[in-house]
């Protein structure tokens, strides 16, 4: 994508943009891991051995799920601040690295023109930058 002018309302530094973009591309990995982590149910919690640091596997799983949830929530919150409606297209575009053309081919039509979509795309990263600070 073409670099934005510093005068643009949604300008962020080039390397920060790339950092945020790669952060978003991990979303499907986080979602898969989040969904696959299940609470150990084979034994009562009291029988699950604790680690030397005193944490049980259940506690560790809960901590990992919480961290994954927090990351996913940041991305989703930025989408919600970007547009009030149909932000799932923005979410799909930024988390799967899909262009306007690919999204249009996949879904038929989008609720925005190409120019409007890329304004929202830039606004998304601007909002995510504020959330991740």
Comma- or semicolon-separated keywords:
elongated; 63% helix; mainly alpha; 133 residues
Give the topology.
Blueprint: H1 14-25, H2 27-36, H3 57-82, H4 88-96, H5 100-107, H6 114-132
Helix pairs in contact: 2-3, 3-6
Describe the 3D structure:
- By secondary structure, the protein is mainly α.
- Helix content is 63%, strand content 0%.
- The protein has one domain.
- The chain is elongated and about 55 Å long.
- Mean pLDDT is 86; it is low at 39-43.
Query: What is the approximate shape?
Result: elongated
| Helical content band | 55-70%
Count of folded domains: 1
Rg from Cα? 19 Å
Major β-sheet annotation: none
* Stretches with pLDDT under 50, minimum 5 residues: 39-43
The topology string of helices and strands comes to HHHHHH
- CA-CA gap between termini: 23 Å
Q: Please, how many helices? A: 6
| SS-based class | mainly alpha
């Amino acid at each position: 994508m073409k670099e934005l002018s510093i005068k643009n309302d949604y300008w962020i530094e080039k390397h920060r943009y790339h950092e945020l973009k790669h952060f978003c591309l991990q979303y499907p990995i986080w979602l898969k891991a989040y969904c696959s982590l299940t609470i150990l149910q084979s034994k009562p919690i009291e029988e699950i051995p604790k680690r030397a640091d005193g944490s049980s596997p259940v506690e560790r799983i809960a901590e990992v799920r919480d961290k994954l949830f927090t990351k996913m929530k940041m991305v989703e919150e930025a989408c919600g601040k970007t547009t009030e409606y149909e932000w799932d297209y923005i979410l799909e575009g930024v988390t799967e690295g899909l262009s306007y053309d690919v999204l249009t081919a996949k879904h038929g039509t989008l609720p925005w023109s190409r120019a409007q979509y890329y304004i929202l795309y830039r606004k998304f990263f601007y909002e995510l930058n504020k959330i991740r600070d």
